[in-house]
Design brief:
By secondary structure, the protein is α/β, with parallel strands linked by helices. The protein has twelve helices and 16 strands.
């Protein structure tokens, strides 16, 4: 079968994938819950609905995207008719993470299939229930020579990276991303690396504090903070910091009750290793709210930490959990000192009713994507 040229086949198989996912949605959300207690409404919103929307858009637009694009000829070729003809890369390796174990597998798979590639998927070993339903769906929809799933741990990923690929798509940590980039460089293989970072969230003295708190609590604690674009730490103007902390606590209680461990809407940490790492961050910190944990269920409460030192463990790397450090600032020099202490963040958020200030922040700092007066 020629995946390289048969656009109609690509559309047909993507349509079959769409139907299979729609029919399997309950199985998918149950599997995700069994892996780390992600609530069904979160799994539908951030996993299955996201993938279904991506599929519908791709199927609708694929014929247009695949057509050759007419371009103006250069002076060297004039007169002529010039076109850009799109071709697949070939064999694509997708190494996926555990934090959104369905969405972050399927979305790059959809793109790779739409472009006419053959795909090998390496899902995370940390979410075995989700991987099982992924394998079931993939095997129902695709021939193995078209799309195949290879299960296993870091050793399997390492062996896969030793092979020659035409494209590698990796989502995960900066540390592993560097390993992927080095392996790809041996064959000059192009890569997409979707990595993490410490995402700052700025709240100035003009912000609507209650609304800002509501949106930050949503963006930070959805998926228990295990989201690469979640706010990693807050920088709050000193004039409103105390009041804003009260607003945050109100919104956490509103979202998850007085004891989030009993809430059906709060996700747990994916495994004990990550849980232990997060709990260790709380040593010798000033905890304003939360801090409770349960080692048997890998639960860690939504937690607010006051003024951790920039050199402390909690402020060195991406937290990737339900811990939210809160720093104060007085002026823009303070903001620069804090934010420029780190590599360029994946995301940046600013809450302010002062448009001039918000735009100044957006233009001053380099980041991947962001929002004014909203988060994720």
């Amino acid at each position: 079968m020629n995946f390289k040229t048969d656009v109609n086949y690509r559309k047909q198989v993507l349509q079959k994938l769409l139907q299979t996912i729609q029919q399997s949605e309950k199985e998918i959300t149950t599997a995700i819950y069994n892996d780390f207690r992600k609530p069904e409404f979160e799994a539908v919103l951030t996993e299955t609905n996201y993938v279904i929307s991506e599929l519908k858009s791709t199927i609708k637009n694929l014929s247009k995207w695949a057509k050759p694009k007419k371009v103006f000829p250069s002076l060297l070729n004039f007169p002529s008719s010039d076109f850009i003809v799109y071709e697949p890369y070939g064999k694509v390796l997708i190494i996926a993470p555990w934090n959104y174990p369905f969405q972050l597998v399927m979305c790059p798979v959809i793109a790779a299939i739409a472009a006419g590639n053959q795909v090998v998927i390496k899902p995370s070993e940390y979410t075995p229930h989700t991987t099982a339903i992924l394998v079931k769906i993939i095997n129902q929809v695709f021939d193995k020579e078209h799309v195949n799933v290879i299960e296993g741990g870091a050793d399997v990923a390492s062996n896969l990276l030793k092979k020659r690929w035409d494209y590698i798509f990796f989502t995960g940590s900066v540390t592993v991303g560097k390993i992927v980039a080095q392996a790809a460089a041996l064959h000059l293989t192009p890569v997409t690396l979707e990595l993490g970072g410490k995402n700052p969230c700025i709240i100035d003295q003009t912000a609507n504090l209650q609304l800002s708190a509501k949106r930050i609590v949503w963006g930070k604690f959805i998926n228990a903070g295990q989201t690469c674009i979640a706010p990693d730490y807050l920088i709050v103007h000193q004039l409103v910091k105390s009041k804003f902390i009260d607003c945050l606590i109100d919104e956490i209680k509103s979202a998850y009750g007085n004891k989030a461990e009993l809430s059906p809407d709060f996700t747990h940490i994916v495994n004990h290793s990550n849980w232990s790492r997060l709990v260790s961050f709380l040593d010798n910190q000033n905890i304003l709210y939360g801090g409770e944990f349960n080692s048997e269920t890998n639960y860690l409460a939504p937690t607010l930490v006051d003024e951790p030192a920039l050199e402390s463990e909690i402020m060195k790397d991406e937290i990737f959990g339900p811990i939210l450090p809160i720093l104060k600032y007085e002026n823009e020099t303070d903001l620069e000192r804090i934010i420029l202490n780190y590599e360029k963040p994946l995301s940046l958020y600013v809450f302010s009713e002062n448009k001039s200030f918000a735009n100044k922040i957006i233009n001053k700092f380099s980041f991947g994507g962001g929002c004014i007066n909203d988060t994720v």
